[in-house]
Amino acid sequence: MRKYLIGAIAGAALMFGIQTGASGVLTGTKVAGEKTVNYNGKSIGQAAIINNTSYLPVRAVSNSLGLQIDLSGGAINLTEPATTTNSAETNDTSTTNDSEAAKIYEKLNEVNASINTINVRIEPFNRLISGLTENDPGYAAIKKSIDEFQAQLTDLQKQKADLESQLKEFTKP
User: Fold this and answer.
1) How far apart are CA 31 and CA 52, in angstroms?
2) Where are the domains of the chain?
3) pLDDT tens digits for 16-69?
4) What beta strand segments (E) does the chain contain?
5) Cα-trace Rg, the chain
6) DSSP assignment, residue 86?
7) C-alpha angle with apex 157: 156 to 159, nearest 5 degrees?
8) For the segment 102-135, what is each residue's pLDDT rounded down to a tens digit?
9) pTM of the predicted model, to two decimals?
10) Which residues contact 96 (CB under 8 A, 6 or more apart)?
11) What is the Cα–Cα distance from 105 to 67, expressed in whole angstroms?
């Protein structure tokens, strides 16, 4: 009987636990629709329409406008990259560097999203296992899932550190 109860709790945690990660002012607010965002005739992403307000994807818009994104200090800071106009060759190099930096920013955004997703997914398992002992049925399977999530997080944290290191190379004077 206890085995079935633990299985039911684990199933419920998986099914409903993913929703617990969202928080903020717009939590629970219904998205009324989506609109394609175009810049110079090129689609750069989808805007969510919530309460008659368009919410644009900051990363896609800033990349399209050639802006740099800094996520430090709990805010999203957009800045124009410093460019030099000494020669056409310098401008070509700057454009290439901006393009490479934009690709790294995009990859960093994907890695951060993956980290957040895994953190949301692992939370119910951690809550579930905290009430169990090693002898309880299902403990080993839950522990294995947690260990797999932790391994993924470790790999993603390494990727994040590498990408941040690469970005620092672009911001050196």
Assistant:
1) 10
2) 84-173
3) 554 444 445 556 678 788 888 777 677 777 777 777 777 777 777 677 667 777
4) 33-39, 42-50, 53-55, 68-70, 77-79
5) 22
6) S
7) 60
8) 888 888 889 988 898 888 888 888 888 888 888 8
9) 0.46
10) none
11) 11
